[in-house]
Amino acid sequence: MEQNPRVTTFVGGSTGEWRVASTTVLAGDALPRVERIALHTSSVEGLPSGALWALRGTSSNLRYTTAEERERLVANQASIGRASADRAALIPIRKSADWWERTQDARREIFEARSHHIEIGLSVLPAIARRLHHCRDLTSCEPFDFLTFFDYAERDEAAFDRLLAKLRSSEEWRFVDREIDIRLVR
Amino acid sequence: MEQNPRVTTFVGGSTGEWRVASTTVLAGDALPRVERIALHTSSVEGLPSGALWALRGTSSNLRYTTAEERERLVANQASIGRASADRAALIPIRKSADWWERTQDARREIFEARSHHIEIGLSVLPAIARRLHHCRDLTSCEPFDFLTFFDYAERDEAAFDRLLAKLRSSEEWRFVDREIDIRLVR
Hints:
2 copies of one chain form a homodimer. The first copy, chain A, is built from 5 helices and 8 strands. The first copy, chain A, has helices spanning 67-76, 97-100, 104-114, 117-122, 157-168, and strands at residues 7-13, 18-27, 36-40, 53-58, 87-95, 129-134, 146-152, 176-185. An 8-stranded antiparallel sheet of chain A has the order 4-1-3-2-8-5-7-6. In chain A, strand 2 (18-27) and strand 3 (36-40) form a beta hairpin. Chains A and B meet through helix 1 and helix 3 of A and helix 1 and helix 3 of B.
């Protein structure tokens, strides 16, 4: 069958353009430690030789962002893949059943009105570029709900850490039941 | 790989519990005409023998419904599969790129404030039961964005037709670029 062209696979193993600098398990089970991560702009079925895991996600339509917020994001954000961005982070996240059972308005209320997710993200633009991949509605049963990929220059890593600390102390993060922070160097 | 347990496949061909009574193409390309439709509570890869098409979708979290609307839906709705429901409809729908590029608040505004999608749906409860399957974020490239399945008793088919006429004349439906209405008899 023809593949959804928006699917990306992150393959953890011994090859790939990104070297793993550190892996921190913030919630839930760890993933097997790997040396490198390779990005494939397709769905990789099964495990390539030498790989220990493969995480798939698809880019999709916006889920919470309003038109006004998007305008501010678009005016300020950079795209993944700048030559200056020699650092990256892959942060796979799973949210609890309690999150997913909530209605759209209840999730939006926690996400932005109370946790300021977009507002916090805006504060580090354009230094930190971000791309979000959704896993929950793929055909395969995936271990995470989201794969967030960030890239930035080495000098911006401290700002990235402050961003994550703010998000992780928010009400939204009470619904995160698995999170792994994998830092990468090109 | 283990499958997403929320995926359903509708297989059109010569076998299956539902006999096709009529097929109406409302927008976009037709599907090959079939005699029967079989429901599989899994992702069927490729085409079973005798089948002319297979459409996959996954149930997922609510996208537009508010907590207050859900309360009214839950208080009134019936589940698919009642013994009295010997009629059904499978309505696959695709929406335009223009729809998907809009932000959440803009889509919600069209969906409910201006098109009254949920309000119109509430008016036929509990006679018409509905189940929604999302196709857009599956791993495969699917020809529709949604598969909506309804079941009801024969005497409620006129109310179902009135419901569809209201929705199809709404602003939301200007964004529907492919729609096929397949009526089924058990």
